Amino acid sequence: MKKGISLFLALAATAVVAASAQANHRTVASASAGVSCNSTFTLPFVTPLTGGAAFLGQEQMSWASYAVKTLAKSYGLKIKLVGGDTPVEQGATPAQDLAQKYVGDKSVVAILGPSTSGAVAASTQTYFAAGIAHLSPSATRTDLTKTVGGVKEGTPAFFRDVPGDYIQGPSDANFMIKNLKVKKVVIMDFQEPYSLGLASAVETTLKAAGVSTIRLSAPNTTTDYSAYVTKVPSDADIVFFPTQKPADAQTFAQQLLEQGKKAKVFGGDGSNDSTAFKVPGSYVSNFAPDITGIPADKALVAGWQKANPGKTVGSFGPPAYGAAQILMSAIHLACKADHGVIKSRRDVLRKVKQVSIKNWILGGTFKWSTKSNDPLNAKFYIFQIQQNGSYKLVG
Amino acid sequence: MDTFIQLTVDALTLGSVYALIALGYTLVYGVLKLLNFAHGDVFMVGTFIGFGVLQLLGGAASPNVPVWALITIITLAAMGGCAILGVVIERFAYRPLRDAPRIAPLISALGVSFFLANSMQLLFGATPRTYNTFEIGNGELYFKGFDIGNVRVPLLRIITIGAAFALMVALYILVNKTRTGKAMRATSYDREAAEMMGIDINRVIRFTFILGSALAGAAGVMFALRVPTTVAIGFVAGLKGFTAAVIGGIGSIPGAMAGGLILGFAESYTQGYVSTKWSDLVVFSILVAFMIFRPQGLLGRADIRKV
Amino acid sequence: MTDSTPHSSDTPASGPAVGQDEWVARHAERRLMRGGPLAAMEERLRAIPWWAWLTLFVGVMCLLPALSSSGYVRRVGFDTVLYMMLALGLNVVVGWGGLLDLGYVAFYGLGAYSYALLDSNQFHLHLPAYAAIPAVVAIGAIAGFLLGLPSRRLHGDYLAIVTLFFLQLFQTIATNGDSIFGHNVTGGAFGIFTVTPLHAFGHTLVVQHSGVFAVSYYYLALAFFAVIYVALRFVNLSRTGRAWRSLREDPLAAEAMGMPVNALKLMSFAFGAAIAALTGTLFASLSASVLPLTFYFVLLITVYTMVILGGSGSQRGVVLGALVIGPLLELLRDPNKSRVIFYIALVAGLLFAFRLSRRLGLVAVATLALGFVCRAIAGAIHHSWVAGSAKGGFQHVLSYWLIIPRHLAGWIPPVTYIGVIGVALALTLVRGRLRLALLPPTLYLAAFVWDNVMLTQPDPARYIVLGLILIALMIIRPNGLLGERRVEIV
Predict the structure, then answer these.
(1) Is the ipTM beyond the 0.90 threshold?
(2) Is A59:A245 a contact under the CB 8 Å cutoff?
(3) pTM for this one?
């Protein structure tokens, strides 16, 4: 038995060394060499592909791959999209490990993602120090691009193509105050960063307007909201439900009906999915109109659905498409300015803010805000679910 | 008062599902003295089997069979599928370790749990799956029902609670009134003596796993009829399930039933009356208190270690 | 009485100790003498003192940054050293104390959070390293002690449950700690994200230079590792170590012999927790943020696999376990490397099972032949069935043997996956010639599933591998690589 162990050890050691040797031959950092624009660029997508938030990462990945597949040629680039998994259960480590990996890889000139605000916070310093632009399609924590309470977690190399919580929260709250004339609102959060940020933003605005608010906090692993539904007072007008799982919003709305409560569910952009969340009378807010309703996107959506049979168009995916497009555009601009050889990643970083896209996937023209690394004039659209389940724009 | 009634109904619904899961733990612990950590993931697989069969039968919006038949078929399918899964797990992950130190099958169970959850993720992805029960017959399962005061108890909950109780009664009869049940009880008291008495231990253990896993499958369907399911629910469901089993007294069947209901009530009332944020904490503190002051739970036997 | 002390260089080769049966005591020697050149080499290796091994090991690890300037390699190296430290700590509780502690990573989290609270903007404290580190270690030890207090009367499964619930408790408190009586203590689900790196006497240990991970942290981790290893070694050789061993082997007899069983259990918990807390400090100081979800079930299983694989009870073993599993998990993220690893493991497994015998040759030839035949048939039916591999590289070479379709129909992954598991399990049930005959198709199917199903999602795939390793270890070799075979006395 011991002989076998020695043999096993020797082989295991060989395996590890051999496999890791394969890793290293491309990663010798040499600052002066440039990257030719004819070579294949690696575009890593740092997103949770496993774990509790995997539904987010996988949806975004499908859209990002679609973008790379259909658009890379038109920018004259060869792009290889690779996934970097940052499961939310593992905290900062995967994001930092991946950051190290990509910093050392010469063919990486920009990063798509990280998708989660936590991963951004963990790795943005590394990317900034290495001069790599990283563009997130979903990290909406306010202090990533703005200073909040004297703290700004983000760096100048971080961008996002969706508006932050600081826009969605007040926008939703103001709609509730002005259009719905609410008197009593129940606000829920799920003890994770996305919902906490939104819930707090909404609560502040509502309280300032004198609306009576009740705050309920559910553990992230809750699936049965019956007890919470019971706690909703019968005279509450709205339940603000910033979930990232449309199916949960549906369940909650159904249980409200089951218990005969008159409150309607108001979901954030995370609950935007017309096949999963369709209880009539509920509201959904999103940073873009439903892209299936944008005429310019028809061909695009059809193409995506063909490549992903059986899947529905959600709200997390299209921004990933847009983000990939912006990055490819930036690389293209850098290639043009550098005459075919990108000398440094900072060249790409500098070009990101110069990107502007007409007929952007989320509607209209995409431009950067001059004050922060957020999109310009970002606004939120509020929809109400109709009797037939379709989403109608109401605000 | 309405809140109280509503919370009680919630508690009964929750508690029934917990009780079914807890029964699986208790049955296996009784015969094998093993905490089957993989049980929660068997429950999760049950929800997916139910989903699959539901889709095969046409989906919730336009089922090919009447509603009663629909629910019965998917429950039976889930019970059957989980039973098979339970037997396979027992045969290959636990039987070789029957005479090993107690730590070995526990760790093997952890490995199985991990393996199951990630395999399901690999094969079926991370998107939540809903049974869309609301669409069955235009929401009749949600709107029809009987009223207690101002509170309506919808059909869906009645089905859940009713099915759970029916299964528990069936289990009770099976364990106490049949020969196989007697063999199970004998094995749980003293495995070696039972073997010497001529009881085929392998058969008994296999039967136990079939029962326990089938109950988990039924619990899965009951659960998923009301809320969406993902591949990640196994761990927490398992945790709650064996909290219930331990509170009631692990190894005791009425204990598991009682424990499940107690857990359901504790959770529901804490969320309703105290605070939703700390409900988990309260529940686990109750458990830890039990473990320290009364490890045998409410109805369990004190573990007498013979030297 | 079998000699259950760990193999150390100071076991005298002359005669057994007083009271030991000579024939039994010489059993180990006789077993070795049966060996061959390999066994003689092992004997020579065993004669090398442990501190020489440690020095050699640390020396080799120190050379790692010189071999590769990639920040990624250094970072993975650092993570592995952290895993080694965690494994050493868990070894104290599980391997030496015999206590199944399923809440171990909660101490890791506690250490990380404590450091974060002492050195961040949360409470605006910025303690220097020489104050923060001892404080955190002390907090860890106290927490371990506190967990041990109610667990004294529990054993086996009950202990496992209580410790698991402690893990859940920690998770719940950390996630909801943003409003404990109105104070934001743990930052809730956001965690604490303004943690400052280690600093002392005005110098800060920088985490990165231009984005590349700095070696100073790596060396610091190695230094801590060496210190912990040496300290534990001395503890193991002391009275406490011997007492722990007696507790692990037979708690009842130990108590009857007058061992302070409760005190020993508490000490075991406290030691393990202190080591975990120290590791947590290193982790937090460099992560610049601590999140609650990091310290949960997945990490627990990972550390347990390392300890079990290496052999619980053996310090060298758990370090080896961490060394194998840590980089392996990271390597398995990349499909290309994953593929290579699979085939190396396959070949190694076959060698291990069959040694160099005729049967091995038979199986190898049969598998290869079967592969070529199947691929030829598939290619003849429809060329897109074999056209799925990327140009160039190992996968392309492989596609001459393995069927790699361009598109996989929806039913293929679940069916083939369950199929390969079913066949593999069936393999364990049959014997002899039938088993040999079934082996080549199983291997081919496994290769097919690995390449086409599991490598498309490397992330759950690597956890599946971890789970399988745990199960297989428990069944085939519960004492791991370097552990001792234990017999539980009931």
Answers:
(1) no
(2) no
(3) 0.85
